[in-house]
Amino acid sequence: MSAVGIGIIGVGVISDTYLENFAAFPDTHVVILGDLDPERAKAQAQKHGVAESGTADDVLAHPGVDLVVNLTIPAAHVEVSRAAVAAGKHVWSEKPLGLDRDGAALLLTEADAAGVRVGSAPDTLLGPGFQTARRAIEEGRIGRPLFAQTTFQTQGPDLWHPNPAFLFAEGAGPLLDMGPYYFSALVSLFGPVDRVSAVGTRAREERRIHTGPRAGERFPVEVPSTIQIVTAFESGQQAQSLLSFDSALERHGVVEIHGTEGSIVLPDPNRFDGRIASVAPLGVLRDGGRGEQEWVEIPHPDLTVGRGLGALEMARAISAGTPHVASGELGLHVLDVLLSAQESAESGATVTVASSVAPVPMLPIDFDPFTATL
C-alpha cells in the first residue's frame, strides 16, 4: 500500500490550493501536471515541486497516475473525464460534473463499465463544518427537518475578476457557478429532489470588466444573473434558494434548516468550516410578552482542510471498497436539479427532476486527512 498517484489536468488559479493540500495529505502524491499550455504546466510543477509536467495526454499516459484530477473549464469537464476513464484512471472533477445531462450520464456509464470511479466537487461536504452540522441534525437537534432557506447574493464577479465573461455565459451564471455548493448540501441533508420551480432575471444585458488589463471592456450576459428556486424533495421537505450576481447587499453562505423542534444555521457551503448554531422554539407567549431566543453554538473539530479533500476521501474509499461521499452520481443529480431550475425559469412551469441518488454517506467521525492510511 502507498500514496495514490495523482495527475492534474488544468493548472489554472484553483490548482494552487489543490496542490498545496495534496502535498499535506500523506495518502496523496502528485506525479504530473498537464495543461493545454505545457509551459504553464511546467511553471506550476516547478512552483509546487512536482517532478513531471506536459499535456493532458501525458497525464493520461503516465503509469504512475491512479487518479486524474480534472480542473479544466466546465465546458471541457466531460470530455477530459471521459478520456481519463478510457485510459483506465479514476477521476475527480471540479464542479459542475458537466453542462448537459446526457454527457454527464454517459461519463458515469463508461466509468462503471471500465471499473473506475468518478467523484465530483464540491468537497466542502466533507469539511468538519458541514459534517458536524449534519451529524447534529441526524441526532435530532432540531427534531424532524421541515424546510430550508439558502442565500447567495453579491454584486457579481465582474467587480473583481479580470476575465469574468465566462461566469455570465451559458453554462455558468450564479446558478451553475454557485448552485452546486448549495444544492449538494441540500441533497446531502434531505435526499433527492422531486421537482423545482424557478424564476430568473437579468439586471443588465451587458456587464463591464472593472479590473485587470481588459478593464473597461464590455461583455454580454447570456443567462439569468438572479434566480430564485423553490425545491420539493422526495422526502417531503422543501427549500427556498436565492442565487444572485445583482445585489448591492452582500449576503452569502446562508444555509438555514428549520425543523419541528428548532432551527440550525450551517456554515457557508463554499467553505470547509464556519459557524454552526441552533435555536429552540420560544414556546407559548402570553400577555404580549416576547422571550429572547438563545443561540447554542455547536463546535466542530479545528481541522484546516480545503480543496482536494474529496479526492483524498475517494482514494481511501476505493482502497476500502466503500462508497465515496462526493460521488459522480451526486454530481449528476445536482446538475439535473440545476438544469431543471434553468428550464423552469425559461418556461414558467414546474419541472420534475428525472434523476435520483442514493443517500449520501457521512465521514467516519475520526476521519483525519493528515494520517497515512494507504
UniProtKB/TrEMBL annotation:
Domain of life: Bacteria
Pfam families hit by this protein: GFO_IDH_MocA, GFO_IDH_MocA_C3
The keyword Oxidoreductase is annotated on this UniProt entry: yes
Ranges for domain Gfo/Idh/MocA-like oxidoreductase N-terminal: 5-119
Entry-linked PANTHER family: BCDNA.GH03377 (PTHR43818)
Native species: Microbacterium aquimaris
This protein's name: Gfo/Idh/MocA family oxidoreductase
Positions of the GFO/IDH/MocA-like oxidoreductase domain: 130-265
Keywords on record: NAD, Oxidoreductase
InterPro entries linked: Gfo/Idh/MocA-like_OxRdtase_N (IPR000683), Gfo/Idh/MocA_oxidrdct_glycsds (IPR050463), GFO_IDH_MocA-like_dom (IPR055170), NAD(P)-bd_dom_sf (IPR036291)
UniProt keyword annotation of Cytoplasm present: no
